[in-house]
Each structure stands twice: as structure tokens, then as C-alpha cells.
Design a protein that fits this description.
With 317 residues, this protein is mostly helical. The chain contains eight helices and six strands.
Length: 317
Amino acid sequence: MSTSNTCPKCGYANLPNARFCANCATQLTVSPPSYQVPQQPPSIPPAQWYGSPPGYWNPVETARKTGIDRTKTGLLLVIAGILLGPIPYVTYIGLILAIIGVIIVIIGRDPFGSSHSNYVIFSVIIYCIGFVIAFVAGFLFGFSFASAALSGGSQAAVEQELTSAFNDLIVSILISEAVMGIAYVIFTYALQDSAGRVLLYIAFATQLAVAVLVASIVSPQVAGAVDQSFSTGTFDLSPLRDLQAQLQVLRLIGLIPAAIFATAYYKAYSRITKGEVPSPAKPLSPGTPQFSEPSAIREARLRALTISYPSDRSLTK
């Protein structure tokens, strides 16, 4: 656009916005201002990320790492619970730690695959079955004990009924120990290498052997303890309490299989720590985005482009 408005009659150069010639007063034609159509921002598709760019959150990898960390924490709690279980007076503390650990392992099981996930669920179900067996056996023993004490029958009949109740309880505990031992074996089975699985089998066999040993020691003494309870003519619980105290001491033998189970579980923990399990995440094939650009980042980019390319038309002088 020219910077002057030339008079068509006399050729005088007037100001650009003059309507009449300053020399001859001829009316001038003022050309309308020209406008330049602004450039529109280019259409930018959402960015696709093919990995984990520095400084950005990868939800898939974060969830995987969280599951692995939870499993490691849960295994440590279960190990502590297993070791405390056979020790009198802290048995329930060990049980609480083990329950918390199992729950954490269940929550974090997904990164380790379907095999481990199924083993964990089956292990919990089997353990619950063993616990129910022990609970029902204890309830039936208490019921039989109370019935025998209040039956009013002869002393010989009461002694026989109590002895039978004790023996049934011992057999039920053996069955419960066997069922729970299976649960201990399969809980970390998918996380173990061949050596770890051998340890699990050894621990299971040792647990059964210890349970049979304790039963073989206690069972012959049951009849004698019951007989001593009636030796004074009235029912005396002292011999039975002494037998219970002896049983508590014998439970310490259970530290042997507990230590073997704990060692096997720690081997699984070590494999996770070393990165041997779970298997590394498979790399994505070329051209396959892992996840889309977050909407907040996309909006910020578009806002910056809008500022760079204003939508209103600007007058070019």
C-alpha cells in the first residue's frame, strides 16, 4: 500500500487519508484498507508415545511395579508369620502378620501372570478349608467334653468318652495340618525355581512328620491324663492342663518345617528382587502406541498455538 494519496488532476501528493486535494481541492478517492487473512493453526493430531518418555507418567509400568513391590512386602510378612506361628504366646501375632501378607500378595499378583494368580487363590481356598477342619474339630471336642462332664454316667464311661474326643481331635488336627501344608506349598509355587520347589516339598513332608510325631507322643498320654483327672473321685483338670502345657512345648518342633517354608519363600522373594520374576514386559511392536497423550498436555499445546495464531483479523497498514 502506498504512503501518499496522489491527486488525479494535478498530481499533488496528498496525505494517505486525505479526502480532498490540498492543491486543487479535487475530491480524492480513498482506497479501503486491505486486510490480511491470518494463518490458522495447523491441525495437530494427539501425540502417541511408544515408551516411557522422561518426566511422563506411564500408568502400565507404574501398575506393574506397584504389584511387584506389594508381592515382595507381602512375602516378607508371610515369612514372619510362618516363623512366629509355632512359638507359644506369639502364635496369633504370626497369624495376623501372615493374613496381612497374604492379602497384599493377592492384591499384587497380576504382574506375575495367570499361573501365579491361580495358585495364590487356590492356596487361600485350601488353607481356609484346613482352618475350617481345625475349627470344627475344636468345636466338636468342646461339645463332647462338656457332654461327657455333664452326662452323669459312670466314671469309666466318661473317661472313655473323653479319651475318644481327645483322639478324634488329634486326628482332625493331623488332617488340618496336611491340608494347610498343601496351601503353603502352592502359595509361591509359580515363583520358585526347581530348588525352591524342592524346598517346598521337603517342608511339607517335614510338617507332616512333625505332626505325626507330636500326635504319637501326646496320644498315649491322653488316657492316662483323663484317668488321673478322676483319680480323686472328682473331676480335676490339672492333669489335662499339664498335658496341654506339654503340647505347647512340643509345638516348638514345628519351627523346623516353618524354617524350611520360610527359606523357600525367601528364595521366591530373592528371585523377585533380582528381576528373575516376573518376566520382563514384552516390547511393543513398531507403530503400536503404548498410550495416548494426556488430555491436559494436549490442551496446553493447543492453547499455546492459539496464542501464536490469533483468531481475530489484524489490519495491515
